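haha ok so turns out i had the wrong file open the whole time. this is the CORRECT one, sorry everyone. sequence first:
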Amino acid sequence: MLDLGRGDEACASIQRGRELISATGSQVYKNMSLLVEAKLWLRLEGDTQRADGVLAEAAANGSSAYTLTRETWQMWSGLSMLLQNRDAEAHDYLAECLRSMQKGDRHLDLPTAAVYLAEAQWRLGLEDESDATADLAMVSASAHGTQHLLLTALADVPSVAARAADTKSSRMSPWHEILAVLSGQHPVRVHVSTPRLVLEEFGEPALMVDGNLTQPRLTKSVELLSYLLWAPDRRATREELLGALFGGRNDAAAAAICGRRSTGFARYCPTAWTRRRTVTSSNWSPRVGHGFGATGGRPRRPGWETGRRDPSPDAVARPQQR
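then structure:
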């Protein structure tokens, strides 16, 4: 939610998570929740005072007892110190964090820690070290597909990207591409991409997702897709689907696919749903309780704003209101 720019929903999700965590009594889960909250305050509001308070609570709760939470605590503490111009303290936290990640072969947050450390090193006059650390962030993100995490970290300290681009002779380098994105009018956000989903109905039905044959758990899932392709405006209400696919029955089998909860189709056709969906040249998008529909869309040009190098989808699925 935070990466989507939906701060209120992110806060609500944290609160809901706290309620669930309290029932488990898990120290680790509580610390992870606190660290996510600290990240939210730093990135959403730049509120170092509130973030430091949450980080102190995590430290008091034993965040240093586990490597993952210790590294995460060091990373967000480092960013908070940078925002407060406490550069030496930031350097110490982030250098230890990055060292621990490299030693443990943990790559997910390594670009983020490296970007923050590169900024701290530059502020302390360690220019060569800063350039090397920035390049480490780029290499790690490119190798492990974490470009979006690299982008969001650079949005916090964009001067790292500017300096890195300045060291490259070619203006076609990835650093120049990133700098162009960061210089745009819009903040870095997650964009959902959609792979191509093709349903072949002649002979034995075959469902392909990005060229890979997919076998849904129930034949009704394929029938549902087929029905939507031929339905007027490629839309259908729950009642229409029950009548066409289940003879009007409203039993458990029907509810599993056309039920009033959003788990319906996803449960029985998980690949087609969770990997996002395109039905031939259009999309299909269930909105259980309102109706099911398939809508077309215009292609989006792929780019660094998605944090991915995947081919652009032909369309983007979106709920259809009835």
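The chain has two domains: 7-182, 197-306.
again sry for the mixup
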